[in-house]
Specification:
Helices cover 18% and strands 11% of the residues. The longest helix is centred in the C-terminal third of the chain and has 10 residues. The protein contains 3 helices and 4 strands. A hairpin with a 4-residue loop joins strand 2 and strand 3. The chain has a two-stranded antiparallel sheet. It is globular. The protein has a single domain, classed as 2-Layer Sandwich (Alpha-Beta Plaits). By secondary structure, the protein is α+β, with helices and mostly antiparallel strands.
Length: 107
């Protein structure tokens, strides 16, 4: 089992989760973070750190976000590893909770 970054991270990209990850399994794109499923040890430290509730245990991922399992896996192979906290995107607060952000994901 792994944890998955879901849709609400798009255009927010808070990195509080990165700071607590003991195995450095987060990867960073232009406007989204992903978790590498083969590196995640299911410690659950990241989930409560996300200020926009965008991280889910794979078995608790909402049905309408199941595609993010594959998105996380695919993009973790392409994007660089992130191991330190950075500022969120400048307009992150405006994007928190906005529905249907999938088309905003910059790959």
């Amino acid at each position: 089992m792994t944890f998955v970054v879901g849709e609400n991270c798009i255009n927010c990209k808070h990195t509080d989760c990165v700071e607590v990850c003991p195995v450095d399994c987060f990867y960073e794109g232009p406007n989204f973070l992903v978790i590498h499923p083969d590196e995640c040890i299911d410690c659950a430290l990241c989930e409560p750190e996300c200020p926009v509730n965008a991280i889910f245990s794979e078995d608790e991922l909402p049905d309408d976000q199941k595609e993010f399992i594959e998105i996380n896996k695919d993009l973790a192979e392409k994007w660089p590893n992130i191991t330190e906290m950075k500022d969120a995107l400048p307009d992150a607060e405006q994007w928190d909770g906005v529905a249907n952000k999938r088309e905003k994901l910059i790959r």
